[in-house]
Amino acid sequence: MKFSLLMSVYGREKPKYLKEAITSAMDQTLPPEELVLVGDGPLPLPLSETVQELCGRYPAIRFVPLAENVGLGRALSIGLKHCSYDLVARMDTDDICLPHRFELQMAYLADHPECSVLGSWIEEFDPAHPGEGRLKKMPETAEEIAAYGRFRNPINHMTAVFRRERVEAVGGYRHDPLLEDYDLWLRMLAAGEKFCNLPQVLVRMRVGKATYERRGGFKYFRRYLKLRQEERELGLLPGSSYIRAVLGTAAMTLIPGSLRKFVYQRGLRR
C-alpha cells in the first residue's frame, strides 16, 4: 500500500534528532512513498543543512518551506494538501520509529477498511537517563477508544496513520497549540469514525523536563477548557461527564510541573 508520511520541522529543533527521526522512518521494512516535510518558518543554518542533506539522501522527501512560523496545526494542514495518497502517517521530528512500524500498520489498515485512524503504544525515553523508558499503552478497540477519548487523548499522535479523506471531511487540522491532534480526533469521533490502536510499541518518544512543563499552566488549562466546551457541544460529554472532564483537566494542568511529571510517570505510564 502506498502512503505519505507527514512531518513538520521548526527552528528550535535539533539537527541530530531530525536526522535520527527521518532515518528511522525512511529505512523501514515498508518505507513511505513520499515524506512531506513542512518547514514551519525560517530554519537556522545547521538545521537547514541537515534538511538539504536528508533530501539528497532520500529523493522521496518533498520539502515544503513556509516563510513564517505558523504553528504545528496550520503547518500540518498545509502539508496535508501536498500529500499524494489517501493514507497518511504522522511522526514528530525528534522521535524514532521501530523498523517494522509502517509494515504492520499498513497491513492492519488493508484488512480493516472501517478503521479511520490507527495508532500504537509508545516507549517514552529521556536521553539524559538511558535505560529508564516507560510504556504508554493505549486502548485497543474502537469501543474502548471512543469511551477513553471523551476524557483523554486516545491516539499517540506520533504513531498515527489516518485516511486523509475522512480527516478532511471534519475540517482537518486546526490551530490549537499542543492540542491539535486531540481536537481532530474528537471531531472524528463525533462524526462516528472508528479508531484502533495496535497493542505494541512502534515509536520511541523523547521526553524531558520541558515535556511535562508545557502540559501545564493556566494558559494551557484555558485552551484545554475551550476544547472541553467544544467536546460538550459535539455531544461527547453529556451531563456530569463534562464536569468530570473539566475537573480532571484542572487537576492535571494546574499542579506543579514536578508533581505532574510524577503523576504521568507513576500513574499514567508503566
Describe the structure.
- Helix 1 links the parallel strand 1 and strand 2 (34-39).
- By secondary structure, the protein is α/β, with parallel strands linked by helices.
- The protein contains 11 helices and 9 strands.
- The longest helix has 16 residues, at 218-233.
- The radius of gyration is 18 Å and the shape is globular.
- Strands 1, 2, 3, 4, 5, 6, 7, 8 and 9 form a 9-stranded mixed β-sheet that branches.
Q: For the terminal residues, how far apart are their CA atoms? A: 33 Å
Q: What is the overall shape? A: globular
Q: Which runs of at least 5 residues are low in confidence (pLDDT < 50)?
A: none
* Average pLDDT taken over every residue: 94
What is the rounded Rg? 18 Å
Sheet having the most strands: 9 strands, mixed
Give helix and strand order, one letter per element, not per position: EHEHEHEEHEEHEHHEHHHH
Number of strands: 9
Which class best fits the helix and strand makeup? alpha/beta
Into which percentage range does the β-strand content fall? Answer: 15-25%
Instruction: Work out the helix count.
Output: 11
Measured as a percent range, the helix fraction is 40-55%
